[in-house]
Amino acid sequence: MALSKDEEIPKLSKELCNKLLKDLENARRPILEATKCSLDNSKYDFKVGFLTPGSKKVRTELNVSSVQKMSRAIFMLEILLRNIETGAVNTKRELYYISKGEIKHNPHLRPLDFASQDESDSIIDFICEILECYREELNCYANDRGGQTYSQQLVVTETLTDGEKAVVDLSTLGTSPFQPKNRPQSLRLKAKKKIDYCLVVESEGTANTLVANGFCKRNNAILMGAQGVPSNAVRGWCRLISDELKVPIYFFGDLDAYTMQNIFRTLKAGSAASLIRNSDFSAPEVRFLGVLPEDIKKYELNDYPVKENDIQEVRALKKADDALKNDPFFRDKRNKDLSEILKWLLKFKRRCEQQAYFTVNPRDPIMPEKILVEKIKKGDYV
Amino acid sequence: MATRAITSSSTAEYFAKNLQQVGFSSQTKAILTTLKESVDNSLDACEEDSILPEIRVTVEKVGAGGLKNSDQIKVIVEDNGPGLEAEDLVKVFGEYLASSKFGRGRCSRGQQGIGISAATTWAQMTSAKGVKVISKTKKMRMAITATVEVDIKHNKGVMKNKQTIKWDKPHGVSVEFLVDGRAQVGGEGGLQTYLTGTTLVNPHLTLHYKLLDQEWVTIERVSKEVPEIPEATSPHPHTMKLGEFIAHSHLFGRVSVGEWMKKGFSRVHEGTLKELVKAGVKKSVLSASVDKLPETGFKDLYQTIQKVQLMAPSTKSVLTIGEEALSKSILRLGAVDFFSVVTRKPTICDFKPVSVEVAVARLQQRKVEESESSVSVLRFANRVPLQFDKSACAIVKAIESVNWRTYGLVQPKDSIPLGPYVIAVSLVSPFIKFKNASKETVDASDELVDELRLALIQAGQKLSRHIKAENRANDLEEKLRHIEQFGPILVDGLCRILEAPAARKKKAEDGLMKLLGRDSRAAEKQLAEAVEGKQVLAAKQNQILGLIPGPESEPGEEGGETAEKSSPKQAEGVEAATSDGDAKSEKKGKVKGKGKGKAAKGTNAAKAEKADELLPPDEKAKPDDASKSEEKTDSRNKTKADEGANKGGKTKAGKGAHGASGTKTDKKANKRNKKAVEEEVNENSADSSEGLESEKAQQENIETVKFVKSKDKKKAKKGKTTNVAEEAAPTKVEEDPAPKTKESKKTKGEALPNIADESSSETETPKDKAIEKGKTKESKMKEPKAAKELNEGAAKGKKTKARITKEKAPKEKSKKKAAIGKSKGK
Fold first, then answer.
1. Per the domain annotation, does A174 fall within a domain?
2. Which of B185, B144, B191, B151 is nearest to B166 (CA)?
3. Minimal CA–CA distance to B155: which of B121, B104, B112?
4. Mean of the pLDDT values across residues B491-495?
5. Does residue A124 share a domain with residue A43?
6. Which domain range does residue B255 map to?
7. CA of A96 to nearest chain B CA: how many angstroms apart?
8. What ipTM was estimated for this complex?
9. Were A119 and a residue from A114, A237, B19, B113 both cysteine, which residue would form a disulfide, CB within 3.0 to 4.6 Å?
């Protein structure tokens, strides 16, 4: 019998606790097993489309070194289970304070006290890894960053926690965006009219500009601002659009190593840190629209060399080199076009920003839009 | 416009008007400078005549000073030096730029002959009295006393009230200044800091002092060796400017240019002259008389020789304090928990020979209240404390550039570390580039900062053993507390979630206590061992200091330590070898370790000893239970797993150290060396808390560095190849244990002695590089320069070593992988 997520987690947790207690009763050392979330335990299959966990597990056996971590995990699990039961949601920061409050009222728990939020965060992540779930399923949400969406055709129906439904017609919002939630499973999408594609723009500002200049009026499209590295909300939202509306998704961002491997890769195939939840938080269909290396020549875009003394850029290049060797996503032959871009970046050590399209015709405010639409039409993407 | 007559003034007039340039810029500085110049002169004089200095200093308030807010201070400095002849008194105390040391290129404290005359001037200007001097040389039956003043108009000394008196000293000088100023005792620029600093870097000095109202303090000497000041070497043509070059020729009268070049400069010989001819200097110029050479001729010659490649200047003229003396001296700062000292081999920085010595100690008395403040930095240039303008100094820049966090100190980013530590850095060179005439700051050239940095890194590495031993004991104590605290809470939590009955809870609690009780006992045992380990380290330092006689009669304990315990001197040798291939250790390598055994002496021994020292004995204990369980990603685990894998080797290595007395075998030494390499890697990985990924990367990084180096260097000159092989050869031997044919043994026998003959500073270089590469972007190392000088004659065994090096990298890698596998398996 399939259990809903809300039922499954308490059940799994209790099974786990029971096993631990049994081991203790028998004076055996309990062992906790968690999926190893790192690049070396990531697998990528082009057909699946996102990074999946390998077979590596991290085992924590109870002993003098781990007894603190285990006690803290059980303590935090108790709080989370109570939240699931009552339907309350919290952020990690709030959970940190809730745990502080618990300890304040139960002095015998004092040894468990977290000195900083990092400590409680890592315990929450540890619980997610043991239960193989993502924190949203434990009612622990991050603030919704990025993913501001504009469209004249899209209608979103949200099921609220009390079962009520809210319908949002994006065309009625004017130039205000729709902000997707971290919990994509509670959203349903509908198109009033056929939607041709979804365009994800790395810079929220540029997305805003496109809307203000009438992009949504002229195109039957969904326009979204990613706001840097896509948050869970953005990733889940893109997945939902891809699954429910079956429209192609294009990503438009800077041409640099950071965008390619941190932003675009995460959007398309998820990340190594979130191996467990990539299935719901990645959009394998998303295509890289630009800026492509050939665009620089084609549109005579202003690019500039990577500054040797810019630590961040140099580090991104170093990481790119590493990604080409170790990241299963870039190593997959069918993502060759993307790895070629990384190679190009490494070779020429140049970068070009998305806003460079504004140089093409500085007096035509919709020039970037024209280029983007033309690129989509011509199939000029990777 | 009316023309005014241009007048010239004397040097004394210039300085009298600009006393702030030579250390009299404030009232407090005036007192300090007066004292400093007097003490420095005394020390220099004693060293010149190989006398063990004994100096008495009195600083007292006499009354109110003439200057605003000042006191009248009497500064008396009395030494047991050779004394001054009557006719010299006026020159020394009353004439500027009259010096026995000017431009001689020696590592003396004073150089120009300005300081003490400036002090006389200050006294004269503020209290209208010159300096009162008593002097007696060995030849004199009676001492002479006089007041010397500066005739500022003519830059001449004037003697007044000359008398002969009875003085109970056989020889010596006493000076008495009456000056206006304010005496500051404590603080960075204080008199006390100056005096304790001076005693630190002058272990042979006995100092009695009385500052203001304080009681008399006596600091006894800890060394009875007067430092032998090496003779100056001739100037190096590349370090001169054209004017100096021409002026230098005037010292030689009527000799041929070629002869002058050869006699007057270091690193110029017949071959150089040929090179000059090749580069376009006419032969006739070289055979012409130097006093007839026209200026254009000098200019051409000068410009050409700048283009000719010459050997770097010699480092012979540099004096070092030595690690043993420094170790003993550091205890005079107060009670210390532990310390580390490093004396680097003299090297060339910016074409000048330089020697760097570093002492780092943790003081007991500062522990509580000052753990949050910066460490106290003592800077020395030619054994004179530098007390002002800290931030611009090369020494401080070097300290800031080191990542002290790796060694267990607290350090805000890019600044001086915090805590109850003293970092003393002594820079000795015949040509220190001061930023100003008052010698307060050393110019921070890149080369110099790099050299200082290397010394500091080595000292930090040595110190980290002690800190880590201490941290480990603390960790274990905390673990024990964990067991008591968390056990019941865990069971409680589980029962609450499961709503389990009380019976189940009771049973689980019992089970848990059983489990953790076992852990508890193990941890207690480890703690005992860790505490013991700390004591052993402390005892070892005491032995180095000679506070406890070396237990030569107890060869049984902790093998790895034995070599150090045998006698303070020997221990010093080992420490020196560890740090930098002090001449002593090189010698030892040659004399004692003949044939196979040699290998263990020079470089290999250096590493092996280091590894033994690096590892507190408690770490040699079996890995604790944690290693079995805690995640694969836990870097500490891996370290332990590796340790476990090395255990066998380690024990043998420990025994091998007995071989210091001669019975050492190649194999043992090599094992120790291998361990040293691994230990370094382990230490690094243990420091990083990033888990397996980064750790692996780091290790591979280190491997790659070595491997790439071996490849490159094989192509390069002879000497350099040897350098890499030092690291590689022993490892290979470890991989293929004993039965691996005679040939390999033979190879070792040939290859390793060469290594022993190498400078051990070479030993450090690759390792340092590896460490640095693993952690942060780091400075370029300068060793290759020294390598050129030192590596000649390493041709023998070169090929073998290169081959071994090539094979080593993948093998060691696979071994590490195996170790990882092991820990995973568990």
1. no
2. B144
3. B121
4. 91
5. yes
6. 237-307
7. 18
8. 0.78
9. A114
| Residue contact B625–A20, C-beta within 8 A | no
Identify the pLDDT of residue B647. 40
User: CA-to-CA distance for A47 and B64, rounded, in angstroms?
Assistant: 93
Domain boundary among A138, A158, A187: A138
Q: Which of B489, B491, B523 sits opposite A64 (nearest CB)?
A: B523
The per-residue pLDDT for range B698-756, each reduced to its tens digit, is 444 444 334 444 444 444 444 333 333 333 333 333 333 333 333 434 333 333 333 33
- Kindly report the length of chain A: 382
Specify whether A121 is located in the same domain as A208: no
Number of domains in chain A: 2
Give the CA distances from residue B262 to residues A204, B272, B273, B532, in Å, rounded to whole numbers and listed in that order: 74, 9, 8, 61
Confidence of residue B110 (pLDDT cuts 50, 70, 90): low
Same domain, residue pair B280 and B166:
no
Residue A73, domain CATH: 1.10.10
Residues A122, A220 within the same domain: no
CATH number of the domain enclosing B89: 3.30.565.10
State how far the alpha carbon of B185 is from the alpha carbons of A203, B59, B123, in Å: 62, 10, 20
Residue B460 sits at the chain A interface (C-beta within 8 Å): no
The whole-angstrom separation of Cα B271 and Cα B277 is 10
Å between B623 CA and nearest CA of chain A: 13
- The pairing of strands A197-201 and A249-252 is parallel
Q: Is B480 on the interface with A (CB under 8 A)?
A: yes
pLDDT of amino acid A73: 93
Residue A188 in any domain: the answer is no
Phi, psi of B71 (to 5 degrees): -110, 160
Give pTM, 2 decimals.
Answer: 0.50
Beta-strand ranges (E) seen in chain A are 31-35, 42-44, 51-53, 57-61, 148-151, 154-159, 165-169, 187-191, 197-201, 221-225, 249-252, 287-290, 304-305, 350-351
- Indicate which CATH number applies to the domain containing B301: 1.10.8
Domain stop point among B307, B326, B353: B307
* Strand duo A197-201 + A221-225: pairing: parallel
Phi, then psi, of A247 in degrees rounded to 5? -105, 150
Same domain, B288 and B199: no
CA angle, B229 then B177 then B63, to 5°:
145
Helical axes A117-131 vs A67-86, angle rounded to 10°? 80
Count of Cβ atoms closer than 10 Å to residue A194 Cβ: 9
Domain stop point among A105, A121, A138: A138
Tokens 């190392």 sit on residue: B781
Q: Do the chains contact at A65 and B485, CB–CB below 8 Å? A: no
- What count of CB pairs under 8 Å joins A to B? 126
Asked if B131 and B208 sit in the same domain, the reply is: yes
- Co-location of A242 and A374 in the same domain: yes
User: B-chain residues within 8 Å CB-CB of A18?
Assistant: 498
Amino acid sitting at position B42: S
Within 13 A of B303's CA, how many CA atoms are on the CB side?
A: 7
- The C-alpha atoms of residue B757 and residue B750 are separated, in whole angstroms, by 12
Residues B422/B376, Cβ–Cβ less than 8 Å = yes
Instruction: Return the amino acid letter for B371.
Output: S
Q: Are residues B700 and B748 in the same domain?
A: yes
Count other Cβ atoms within 10 Å, centred on residue A204.
Answer: 18
**CATH at residue A329:** 3.40.1360.10
Residues B242, B207 share a domain: no
How far apart are the C-alpha atoms of B282 and A28, rounded to whole Å?
92
Whether residue B382 contacts residue B438, with contact meaning beta carbons closer than 8 Å, is answered with no
